[in-house]
Amino acid sequence: MSGIETFLSLLGDIPVQTVPALVKRKSRDFYWYSPVLKRQLDSCFADCIVMPRTEEDLLKIASAARETKTRLTPRGGGTGNYGQAVPMEGGAVIEMTELNKLLWVKDGVARVQAGMNMLDLDRALQEQGWEVRMYPSTKRTATIGGFIAGGSGGIGSVRWGGLSSPGNVLALRLMALGKEPEILELRGQDARSVLHTYGTTGLITELEIGVEPAVNWQDMAVSFDSFEEASVFARDIALQSGIQKKLVSVVDSDLPPFFASVREHVPEGAALVILMIAPAGIETVKLLAAKAGGQLCYEANTREMEDTSGATPLYELTWNHTTLQVLKKDRGYTYLQCGYPAEGTLDKVAEIRALFPDELMMHLEFFPMGGHVSCAALPVIRFTDEDRLNHIIAEHEKRGVNIANPHVVTIEEGGMHRVASPDLAAIKKRYDPMLLLNPGKMLSARTLEPQD
Fold it and tell me: Whole-model pTM?
Protein backbone atom coordinates (compact mmCIF):
# COMPACT_ATOMS: atom_id res chain seq x y z
CA MET A 1 0.00 0.00 0.00
CA SER A 2 1.39 3.41 -0.98
CA GLY A 3 1.75 6.29 1.45
CA ILE A 4 -1.26 8.14 0.05
CA GLU A 5 -3.38 4.97 0.17
CA THR A 6 -2.39 4.46 3.81
CA PHE A 7 -3.23 8.11 4.52
CA LEU A 8 -6.70 7.71 2.99
CA SER A 9 -7.31 4.45 4.88
CA LEU A 10 -6.85 6.30 8.18
CA LEU A 11 -9.54 8.92 7.48
CA GLY A 12 -12.63 6.87 8.27
CA ASP A 13 -15.79 8.48 6.86
CA ILE A 14 -14.20 11.85 5.99
CA PRO A 15 -15.23 12.64 2.38
CA VAL A 16 -12.40 12.30 -0.15
CA GLN A 17 -12.01 12.71 -3.90
CA THR A 18 -9.51 10.76 -5.99
CA VAL A 19 -10.89 11.10 -9.55
CA PRO A 20 -7.83 12.49 -11.41
CA ALA A 21 -9.69 15.18 -13.39
CA LEU A 22 -11.41 16.54 -10.28
CA VAL A 23 -8.23 16.36 -8.22
CA LYS A 24 -6.36 18.29 -10.89
CA ARG A 25 -9.08 20.96 -11.05
CA LYS A 26 -9.02 21.43 -7.26
CA SER A 27 -5.21 21.70 -7.39
CA ARG A 28 -5.46 24.99 -9.29
CA ASP A 29 -5.97 28.64 -8.49
CA PHE A 30 -5.46 31.77 -10.61
CA TYR A 31 -1.65 31.50 -10.73
CA TRP A 32 -1.95 31.61 -14.53
CA TYR A 33 -2.27 35.41 -14.28
CA SER A 34 1.53 35.14 -14.27
CA PRO A 35 3.19 33.50 -17.30
CA VAL A 36 6.13 32.79 -14.99
CA LEU A 37 4.02 30.90 -12.44
CA LYS A 38 2.08 29.15 -15.18
CA ARG A 39 5.32 27.62 -16.43
CA GLN A 40 6.37 26.62 -12.92
CA LEU A 41 3.06 25.29 -11.56
CA ASP A 42 1.16 23.77 -14.48
CA SER A 43 2.56 20.32 -13.66
CA CYS A 44 1.79 20.50 -9.92
CA PHE A 45 -1.28 18.75 -8.53
CA ALA A 46 -2.38 16.73 -5.52
CA ASP A 47 -2.91 13.00 -5.12
CA CYS A 48 -6.30 13.47 -3.48
CA ILE A 49 -8.77 15.98 -2.10
CA VAL A 50 -10.06 15.69 1.48
CA MET A 51 -13.13 17.57 2.70
CA PRO A 52 -13.29 17.99 6.48
CA ARG A 53 -16.66 18.82 8.02
CA THR A 54 -15.48 19.63 11.55
CA GLU A 55 -12.37 20.41 13.56
CA GLU A 56 -12.42 16.77 14.64
CA ASP A 57 -12.10 15.76 10.98
CA LEU A 58 -9.15 18.13 10.63
CA LEU A 59 -7.41 16.63 13.64
CA LYS A 60 -7.87 13.15 12.16
CA ILE A 61 -6.44 14.38 8.84
CA ALA A 62 -3.48 15.93 10.63
CA SER A 63 -2.74 12.76 12.58
CA ALA A 64 -2.93 10.65 9.42
CA ALA A 65 -0.65 13.11 7.61
CA ARG A 66 1.95 12.95 10.36
CA GLU A 67 1.83 9.16 10.46
CA THR A 68 2.28 8.85 6.67
CA LYS A 69 4.28 12.06 6.06
CA THR A 70 1.63 13.26 3.62
CA ARG A 71 1.85 16.89 2.47
CA LEU A 72 -1.22 19.06 3.12
CA THR A 73 -2.26 22.14 1.14
CA PRO A 74 -5.36 24.06 2.33
CA ARG A 75 -7.83 25.47 -0.18
CA GLY A 76 -10.78 27.82 0.14
CA GLY A 77 -12.44 29.13 -3.03
CA GLY A 78 -9.25 28.74 -5.07
CA THR A 79 -9.23 32.41 -6.08
CA GLY A 80 -5.61 33.23 -5.15
CA ASN A 81 -3.23 34.56 -7.77
CA TYR A 82 0.16 33.33 -6.57
CA GLY A 83 -0.30 29.57 -6.45
CA GLN A 84 -1.14 29.69 -2.73
CA ALA A 85 -3.47 26.69 -3.10
CA VAL A 86 -1.34 24.73 -5.59
CA PRO A 87 0.30 21.63 -4.02
CA MET A 88 3.92 21.74 -5.17
CA GLU A 89 4.82 18.34 -3.72
CA GLY A 90 1.61 16.34 -4.19
CA GLY A 91 -0.16 14.96 -1.15
CA ALA A 92 -3.65 16.08 -0.16
CA VAL A 93 -5.51 19.30 -0.81
CA ILE A 94 -7.76 20.12 2.16
CA GLU A 95 -10.93 21.74 0.86
CA MET A 96 -12.22 23.85 3.74
CA THR A 97 -15.61 24.89 2.36
CA GLU A 98 -17.69 22.63 4.64
CA LEU A 99 -16.61 24.73 7.66
CA ASN A 100 -18.91 27.53 6.57
CA LYS A 101 -20.95 29.00 9.43
CA LEU A 102 -21.23 32.46 10.96
CA LEU A 103 -20.96 31.60 14.66
CA TRP A 104 -21.88 34.93 16.21
CA VAL A 105 -21.69 38.71 15.77
CA LYS A 106 -21.78 41.32 18.53
CA ASP A 107 -20.58 44.91 19.07
CA GLY A 108 -18.69 45.11 15.77
CA VAL A 109 -16.98 41.71 16.08
CA ALA A 110 -17.91 38.53 14.20
CA ARG A 111 -16.79 34.94 14.73
CA VAL A 112 -16.87 32.83 11.57
CA GLN A 113 -15.63 29.48 10.30
CA ALA A 114 -12.78 29.74 7.83
CA GLY A 115 -14.49 28.01 4.90
CA MET A 116 -17.45 30.40 4.69
CA ASN A 117 -17.94 32.08 1.33
CA MET A 118 -17.48 35.84 1.66
CA LEU A 119 -20.70 36.81 -0.09
CA ASP A 120 -22.62 34.37 2.11
CA LEU A 121 -20.87 35.84 5.14
CA ASP A 122 -21.76 39.38 4.14
CA ARG A 123 -25.41 38.42 3.60
CA ALA A 124 -25.57 36.67 6.98
CA LEU A 125 -24.05 39.71 8.68
CA GLN A 126 -26.47 42.07 6.93
CA GLU A 127 -29.41 40.17 8.43
CA GLN A 128 -28.10 41.36 11.80
CA GLY A 129 -27.25 44.90 10.67
CA TRP A 130 -23.52 44.41 9.97
CA GLU A 131 -21.21 43.87 7.02
CA VAL A 132 -17.68 42.73 6.26
CA ARG A 133 -15.14 45.55 6.59
CA MET A 134 -12.99 44.36 3.74
CA TYR A 135 -13.13 41.74 1.00
CA PRO A 136 -11.33 40.80 -2.22
CA SER A 137 -12.71 41.48 -5.69
CA THR A 138 -13.41 37.72 -5.76
CA LYS A 139 -15.99 38.14 -2.96
CA ARG A 140 -18.60 36.01 -4.73
CA THR A 141 -16.31 32.94 -4.81
CA ALA A 142 -13.60 33.48 -2.14
CA THR A 143 -13.72 32.19 1.44
CA ILE A 144 -12.88 34.28 4.49
CA GLY A 145 -10.09 31.89 5.51
CA GLY A 146 -8.55 31.96 2.05
CA PHE A 147 -8.64 35.76 2.05
CA ILE A 148 -6.98 35.96 5.45
CA ALA A 149 -4.35 33.31 4.64
CA GLY A 150 -3.58 34.46 1.10
CA GLY A 151 -4.65 38.08 0.71
CA SER A 152 -3.56 41.43 2.06
CA GLY A 153 -6.30 43.97 1.32
CA GLY A 154 -9.15 44.83 -1.01
CA ILE A 155 -12.50 46.56 -1.17
CA GLY A 156 -12.74 48.44 2.13
CA SER A 157 -9.01 49.11 2.42
CA VAL A 158 -9.57 52.78 1.57
CA ARG A 159 -11.10 53.06 5.05
CA TRP A 160 -9.62 50.17 7.04
CA GLY A 161 -6.14 49.69 5.59
CA GLY A 162 -4.78 46.17 5.09
CA LEU A 163 -5.76 42.90 6.72
CA SER A 164 -2.66 43.12 8.92
CA SER A 165 -3.67 46.52 10.34
CA PRO A 166 -4.43 46.03 14.06
CA GLY A 167 -8.14 45.64 14.69
CA ASN A 168 -9.11 43.97 11.43
CA VAL A 169 -8.31 40.40 12.46
CA LEU A 170 -8.68 39.99 16.22
CA ALA A 171 -8.20 36.26 16.73
CA LEU A 172 -8.14 32.92 14.98
CA ARG A 173 -8.17 29.21 15.71
CA LEU A 174 -5.25 27.38 14.19
CA MET A 175 -4.70 23.66 13.84
CA ALA A 176 -0.99 23.05 14.41
CA LEU A 177 0.77 19.85 13.34
CA GLY A 178 3.00 19.37 16.35
CA LYS A 179 3.82 15.98 17.86
CA GLU A 180 0.20 15.87 18.95
CA PRO A 181 -1.93 17.89 16.48
CA GLU A 182 -3.92 20.48 18.40
CA ILE A 183 -6.23 23.46 17.92
CA LEU A 184 -4.78 26.73 19.24
CA GLU A 185 -6.56 30.01 19.95
CA LEU A 186 -4.35 32.92 18.86
CA ARG A 187 -5.17 36.56 19.58
CA GLY A 188 -3.68 39.95 18.77
CA GLN A 189 -0.15 39.90 17.43
CA ASP A 190 0.02 36.10 17.69
CA ALA A 191 -2.92 35.90 15.27
CA ARG A 192 -1.52 38.55 12.92
CA SER A 193 1.80 36.68 12.73
CA VAL A 194 0.20 33.91 10.69
CA LEU A 195 -1.77 36.15 8.30
CA HIS A 196 -0.80 35.88 4.63
CA THR A 197 1.27 32.74 5.21
CA TYR A 198 -0.66 30.57 2.71
CA GLY A 199 -1.47 27.90 5.32
CA THR A 200 2.21 27.07 5.80
CA THR A 201 2.05 27.70 9.54
CA GLY A 202 -1.21 25.95 10.39
CA LEU A 203 -4.77 25.43 9.22
CA ILE A 204 -7.15 28.24 10.17
CA THR A 205 -10.52 26.89 11.34
CA GLU A 206 -12.20 30.01 12.75
CA LEU A 207 -11.67 33.76 12.67
CA GLU A 208 -12.71 36.69 14.80
CA ILE A 209 -12.86 39.82 12.65
CA GLY A 210 -13.93 43.42 12.96
CA VAL A 211 -17.16 44.22 11.10
CA GLU A 212 -19.01 47.50 10.52
CA PRO A 213 -22.66 48.63 10.38
CA ALA A 214 -24.28 47.64 7.09
CA VAL A 215 -24.47 50.31 4.38
CA ASN A 216 -26.56 50.40 1.21
CA TRP A 217 -23.56 51.06 -1.04
CA GLN A 218 -23.84 52.80 -4.40
CA ASP A 219 -21.59 52.01 -7.35
CA MET A 220 -20.46 55.16 -9.17
CA ALA A 221 -18.17 55.57 -12.18
CA VAL A 222 -16.85 59.03 -13.09
CA SER A 223 -15.05 59.61 -16.39
CA PHE A 224 -12.32 62.18 -17.02
CA ASP A 225 -10.53 63.40 -20.12
CA SER A 226 -7.15 62.47 -18.64
CA PHE A 227 -5.69 59.97 -16.21
CA GLU A 228 -4.06 62.85 -14.30
CA GLU A 229 -7.42 64.54 -13.67
CA ALA A 230 -8.97 61.23 -12.65
CA SER A 231 -6.16 60.51 -10.18
CA VAL A 232 -6.34 63.93 -8.53
CA PHE A 233 -10.11 63.57 -8.09
CA ALA A 234 -9.80 60.04 -6.71
CA ARG A 235 -7.17 61.07 -4.20
CA ASP A 236 -9.38 63.97 -3.12
CA ILE A 237 -12.32 61.63 -2.53
CA ALA A 238 -10.07 59.25 -0.58
CA LEU A 239 -9.01 62.18 1.64
CA GLN A 240 -12.55 63.44 2.34
CA SER A 241 -13.32 62.31 5.89
CA GLY A 242 -16.95 63.44 5.53
CA ILE A 243 -17.65 61.00 2.69
CA GLN A 244 -18.09 57.36 3.64
CA LYS A 245 -16.59 55.15 0.96
CA LYS A 246 -15.70 51.52 0.44
CA LEU A 247 -13.72 51.78 -2.80
CA VAL A 248 -11.71 54.42 -4.67
CA SER A 249 -10.04 53.12 -7.84
CA VAL A 250 -8.62 54.66 -11.01
CA VAL A 251 -7.98 53.05 -14.38
CA ASP A 252 -6.43 54.71 -17.39
CA SER A 253 -8.19 55.08 -20.72
CA ASP A 254 -6.88 51.83 -22.21
CA LEU A 255 -8.75 49.69 -19.66
CA PRO A 256 -12.50 50.55 -19.91
CA PRO A 257 -12.78 48.92 -23.37
CA PHE A 258 -12.07 45.61 -21.60
CA PHE A 259 -14.95 46.17 -19.14
CA ALA A 260 -17.93 44.61 -20.89
CA SER A 261 -20.41 45.65 -18.18
CA VAL A 262 -19.77 49.42 -18.39
CA ARG A 263 -17.78 50.21 -21.53
CA GLU A 264 -20.83 51.46 -23.43
CA HIS A 265 -21.33 54.06 -20.68
CA VAL A 266 -17.73 55.37 -20.72
CA PRO A 267 -16.82 58.11 -23.23
CA GLU A 268 -14.22 56.99 -25.76
CA GLY A 269 -10.66 57.69 -24.59
CA ALA A 270 -11.71 58.53 -21.01
CA ALA A 271 -10.00 57.50 -17.80
CA LEU A 272 -12.31 56.19 -15.10
CA VAL A 273 -12.70 56.61 -11.33
CA ILE A 274 -14.62 53.70 -9.79
CA LEU A 275 -16.29 54.32 -6.41
CA MET A 276 -18.48 52.70 -3.78
CA ILE A 277 -20.17 55.49 -1.81
CA ALA A 278 -22.64 55.50 1.11
CA PRO A 279 -26.00 57.15 0.33
CA ALA A 280 -25.22 60.23 2.45
CA GLY A 281 -22.20 61.00 0.27
CA ILE A 282 -23.69 60.57 -3.20
CA GLU A 283 -24.79 64.17 -3.69
CA THR A 284 -21.44 65.50 -2.47
CA VAL A 285 -19.48 63.18 -4.78
CA LYS A 286 -21.55 64.32 -7.75
CA LEU A 287 -20.89 67.98 -6.94
CA LEU A 288 -17.16 67.39 -6.46
CA ALA A 289 -16.97 65.37 -9.68
CA ALA A 290 -18.60 68.14 -11.71
CA LYS A 291 -16.29 70.73 -10.13
CA ALA A 292 -13.26 68.59 -11.05
CA GLY A 293 -14.35 68.26 -14.68
CA GLY A 294 -15.63 64.70 -14.36
CA GLN A 295 -18.76 63.15 -15.81
CA LEU A 296 -20.84 60.68 -13.83
CA CYS A 297 -21.35 57.98 -16.45
CA TYR A 298 -22.65 55.02 -14.45
CA GLU A 299 -24.60 54.36 -11.23
CA ALA A 300 -26.00 51.18 -9.71
CA ASN A 301 -26.77 49.68 -6.32
CA THR A 302 -23.87 47.44 -5.30
CA ARG A 303 -25.91 44.78 -3.53
CA GLU A 304 -28.46 44.56 -6.32
CA MET A 305 -25.63 44.00 -8.79
CA GLU A 306 -23.93 41.27 -6.76
CA ASP A 307 -27.26 39.52 -6.14
CA THR A 308 -28.26 39.54 -9.83
CA SER A 309 -27.15 36.66 -12.01
CA GLY A 310 -25.02 37.91 -14.90
CA ALA A 311 -24.61 41.41 -13.44
CA THR A 312 -21.24 42.89 -12.47
CA PRO A 313 -20.78 45.04 -9.36
CA LEU A 314 -18.14 47.67 -9.99
CA TYR A 315 -15.76 46.11 -7.46
CA GLU A 316 -15.31 43.30 -10.00
CA LEU A 317 -13.52 45.83 -12.21
CA THR A 318 -11.02 46.71 -9.48
CA TRP A 319 -8.14 45.23 -7.50
CA ASN A 320 -7.09 42.01 -9.23
CA HIS A 321 -10.33 41.71 -11.18
CA THR A 322 -9.02 44.52 -13.39
CA THR A 323 -6.36 42.11 -14.61
CA LEU A 324 -8.93 39.35 -15.05
CA GLN A 325 -11.15 41.53 -17.25
CA VAL A 326 -8.18 42.05 -19.58
CA LEU A 327 -7.10 38.41 -19.54
CA LYS A 328 -10.59 37.32 -20.55
CA LYS A 329 -9.90 38.96 -23.92
CA ASP A 330 -6.11 38.78 -24.27
CA ARG A 331 -3.84 36.32 -22.46
CA GLY A 332 -0.80 38.32 -23.59
CA TYR A 333 -0.95 40.51 -20.47
CA THR A 334 0.09 40.11 -16.86
CA TYR A 335 0.37 42.51 -13.93
CA LEU A 336 2.41 43.87 -11.03
CA GLN A 337 1.58 44.88 -7.46
CA CYS A 338 3.19 48.18 -6.51
CA GLY A 339 3.23 50.27 -3.35
CA TYR A 340 3.68 54.00 -3.92
CA PRO A 341 5.18 56.36 -1.32
CA ALA A 342 2.79 58.61 0.59
CA GLU A 343 4.75 61.72 -0.38
CA GLY A 344 4.63 62.82 -4.02
CA THR A 345 2.44 59.84 -4.87
CA LEU A 346 0.85 61.07 -8.08
CA ASP A 347 4.09 62.59 -9.39
CA LYS A 348 5.72 59.19 -8.98
CA VAL A 349 2.80 57.51 -10.75
CA ALA A 350 3.24 59.93 -13.67
CA GLU A 351 6.97 59.17 -13.79
CA ILE A 352 6.34 55.42 -14.05
CA ARG A 353 3.64 55.85 -16.71
CA ALA A 354 6.01 57.94 -18.81
CA LEU A 355 8.65 55.19 -18.68
CA PHE A 356 6.38 52.52 -20.16
CA PRO A 357 3.74 54.26 -22.29
CA ASP A 358 3.16 51.30 -24.62
CA GLU A 359 3.51 48.42 -22.15
CA LEU A 360 1.69 49.50 -18.99
CA MET A 361 -1.99 50.27 -18.38
CA MET A 362 -2.13 52.01 -15.01
CA HIS A 363 -4.58 51.07 -12.28
CA LEU A 364 -4.58 52.60 -8.78
CA GLU A 365 -6.25 51.66 -5.48
CA PHE A 366 -6.23 54.29 -2.73
CA PHE A 367 -5.75 53.45 0.96
CA PRO A 368 -4.39 55.01 4.19
CA MET A 369 -0.69 54.62 4.97
CA GLY A 370 1.20 56.08 7.91
CA GLY A 371 -1.33 58.84 8.53
CA HIS A 372 -1.45 59.77 4.83
CA VAL A 373 -3.38 58.55 1.81
CA SER A 374 -1.31 56.64 -0.71
CA CYS A 375 -2.13 54.09 -3.35
CA ALA A 376 -1.30 50.64 -4.51
CA ALA A 377 -0.96 50.17 -8.24
CA LEU A 378 -1.86 46.97 -10.04
CA PRO A 379 -0.80 47.95 -13.56
CA VAL A 380 -1.69 45.60 -16.39
CA ILE A 381 1.45 44.93 -18.41
CA ARG A 382 2.01 43.56 -21.90
CA PHE A 383 4.17 40.47 -21.35
CA THR A 384 7.07 39.84 -23.69
CA ASP A 385 9.51 37.75 -21.64
CA GLU A 386 10.80 37.36 -18.09
CA ASP A 387 13.86 39.53 -18.69
CA ARG A 388 11.69 42.44 -19.75
CA LEU A 389 9.34 41.89 -16.80
CA ASN A 390 12.29 41.90 -14.39
CA HIS A 391 13.56 45.11 -16.03
CA ILE A 392 10.19 46.79 -15.45
CA ILE A 393 10.27 45.67 -11.81
CA ALA A 394 13.83 47.00 -11.39
CA GLU A 395 12.90 50.37 -12.87
CA HIS A 396 10.05 50.73 -10.40
CA GLU A 397 12.28 49.88 -7.46
CA LYS A 398 15.04 52.19 -8.66
CA ARG A 399 12.53 55.03 -8.33
CA GLY A 400 11.33 54.16 -4.84
CA VAL A 401 8.22 52.17 -5.79
CA ASN A 402 7.92 48.97 -3.76
CA ILE A 403 7.04 45.79 -5.63
CA ALA A 404 5.21 42.83 -4.09
CA ASN A 405 6.18 40.45 -6.86
CA PRO A 406 3.23 38.28 -8.02
CA HIS A 407 5.49 36.15 -10.21
CA VAL A 408 7.12 34.12 -7.42
CA VAL A 409 5.70 31.31 -5.27
CA THR A 410 7.14 32.06 -1.83
CA ILE A 411 5.60 34.32 0.78
CA GLU A 412 8.82 36.26 1.34
CA GLU A 413 9.86 36.80 -2.28
CA GLY A 414 6.36 38.02 -3.06
CA GLY A 415 6.54 40.56 -0.24
CA MET A 416 8.34 43.84 0.14
CA HIS A 417 11.52 42.43 1.73
CA ARG A 418 12.12 39.22 -0.25
CA VAL A 419 14.46 37.60 2.25
CA ALA A 420 14.15 34.70 4.66
CA SER A 421 12.78 35.62 8.09
CA PRO A 422 14.05 33.97 11.29
CA ASP A 423 10.75 34.88 12.98
CA LEU A 424 8.72 33.17 10.26
CA ALA A 425 11.01 30.13 10.37
CA ALA A 426 10.48 29.92 14.13
CA ILE A 427 6.70 29.96 13.71
CA LYS A 428 6.94 27.25 11.06
CA LYS A 429 9.17 25.11 13.28
CA ARG A 430 6.77 25.51 16.21
CA TYR A 431 3.49 24.80 14.43
CA ASP A 432 4.63 22.46 11.64
CA PRO A 433 7.86 20.72 12.72
CA MET A 434 7.52 17.97 10.09
CA LEU A 435 7.24 20.64 7.33
CA LEU A 436 4.09 19.07 5.90
CA LEU A 437 2.02 22.20 5.35
CA ASN A 438 2.03 23.71 1.84
CA PRO A 439 5.71 22.89 1.18
CA GLY A 440 7.68 25.05 -1.21
CA LYS A 441 5.81 28.25 -0.34
CA MET A 442 8.01 29.49 2.53
CA LEU A 443 11.56 30.57 1.76
CA SER A 444 12.35 30.81 5.47
CA ALA A 445 11.63 27.09 5.94
CA ARG A 446 14.25 25.92 3.47
CA THR A 447 16.98 25.86 6.11
CA LEU A 448 14.85 23.76 8.48
CA GLU A 449 15.09 20.00 8.86
CA PRO A 450 11.87 18.01 9.44
CA GLN A 451 11.40 17.03 13.09
CA ASP A 452 9.11 14.20 14.22
Answer: 0.95
